[in-house]
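Supplementary notes for students who missed Thursday's class. We covered one full example, reproduced here. Read the sequence, then the structure, then the short commentary at the end.
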Amino acid sequence: MNYTELRMPKPSTSKPAQGGGRWGGLGPRRPEDARTAFRKSARWAKPLLPLLVFGLVCTLIGVYLSQQPPRIFAYTIDTVIGRGMWHLLTRVIALYIGIVVLGQIIGSASGYWMSVAGQRLLHTLRMALYDHFQRLPLSYFDSKRVGDLVSRASHDVNHLESMIVNTSNSLVRQVFGVGFALYYMLGYNWKLTLLVTIPVPIIGLSLFIFTRRVRMVYRSIRESTGDFNAKLTENLSGIRVIKAFNREEQEHDAVDETSRFLLSQNTRASKMTSIFYPAIHTITTTGMVIVLGVGANLVRHGELRVGELTAFLMFVTSFYQPIGDFMRTFDSIQRALASGERIFEVLDTKPEIQDPPEPVPLPEVRGDVEFQNVSFRYATGEEVLRDISVRALPGQRVALVGQSGAGKSSFINLIGRFYDVTEGAVLVDGNDVRNLRQSDLRKHIAMVLQETFLFNGTVKENLLFGKPGASDDEVIAASKIANAHEFVERLEFGYDTQIGERGVKLSGGQKQRLAIARAVLADPRILILDEATSSVDSESEFLIHQALDRLMVGRTTFIIAHRLSTVRGADTILVLEGGNIVETGDHEELVDADGWYARMYRQQYWLDEEGMSEEDGGAEEDRETVI
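Structure (token representation):
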């Protein structure tokens, strides 16, 4: 005979250690080089290739049109004005206006379709991360912080999308802008063009050195941003505890530490860019001044016309400006690749628990749960269950008791396959749970946890988690069984009342009764009650016990409870100590055995059937309530 407690995210006291971020939330890193991150980013952009190509072609046409005004100016100065061909002025002006208007139309089309591509990519990446989060086992989240994961799915995704869409657009504009400018400058004077290109190797070498140093800084900034978001999310979620324990000042210091480190890294990056970009600008400006001086001398000697020099100087600007913009674009690429590494770190994480290639069908479940020589240890190496062999027959009620850290939660987590056994097997109706599809298994299991979690929505929406599509009559019937209907009816909008994030607008007892109603509505074959009545007031407890008694008929029920009014009714009680089952039996048998359970029973009630003994009283200081 046997029992089990299914708890979602609580791996007992053997929870894996927090990972290795600066404040313990990020876990070990698997840094990837920029080339790998870029290659993976390109794969994600592949489905959007038609939109991206169309947008980039429009950009290319726009760049070509933007290079025509200098040629028009040169023609106007040297031909229309210089030769007095005033009859051509109207045509020249019309041509110029036409080029400007056409360029704006094409630029608008390019911007729109690139934006559409970017938004689709954002959606794809966000949902890819979310879906992957759902496939990852609970052990992954044991060593991660929610705020950091949220940061990856929001800020990091935005940075990566910006690189794939906006940055690619900028690169096309800059590369072809430089190419067109170089081509036209060569057409005017190859000597001046050679002079213009002299600073390019210096700029290239500077860029190489700069990017090698700045990329690691941007990676640190993205990690620090994740740390800050994680700490902020944690503190806002626990604001009531912070206020209750007067910890505002201490938590302010903790948040300030994360923020200051982020400040220092951003300041470091700003210092690097504030030195680099002005240096590049100084080089290009110096080149422009030299070209102006040499060009003026060529005009003086008749080797170049005034209009041609004017156009050439405009092309010099078109040549150097994209190079300067390219520096900033490359800066954005480094930021995006740092974000990409963090995104792919998640997407490349292989779920430890996966459905088998050919899962065993599980259309119905009787509720026969068996542990066969089960041992279990977490990734940290700590063994929490040792060679457990027990069985719960359909319809039985089995309770687990023991000290904190005895392995109760770990025991239960194995039934729903939230973790996999290290040795042995967990069977449901004779099927190893590792041979079942996880969704097939879990739809036959319902849980009422000690820490009730309700979503931000209405009462009805939360209850329908147990059975999506249930009728109003079914929802009301389940609420009545859980003794929740009366208080729900008294709410402002009844079952359509918004209960706030985590059910903040309800009392603890009300939230617990809704959790019970949610489990009732699910109509499971395997029922998990983990402190199911811990937050219920004394007046409601009796009625809920009656409802649970009716609900448990015909279902395999696993119970963890401090209140012996729940434990005493179990068919079998398992006493866990140090990962081993040290006692088993019903309540009367275990009390008569005068072992672990009997001592825990007396510690809770302080009196045995004949009153508290002298020996018990003398050991008062050593007692610890452990049921």
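Commentary. Residues 119 and 252 are 36 Å apart (CA to CA). The mean pLDDT is 79. If anything here is unclear, bring it to office hours.
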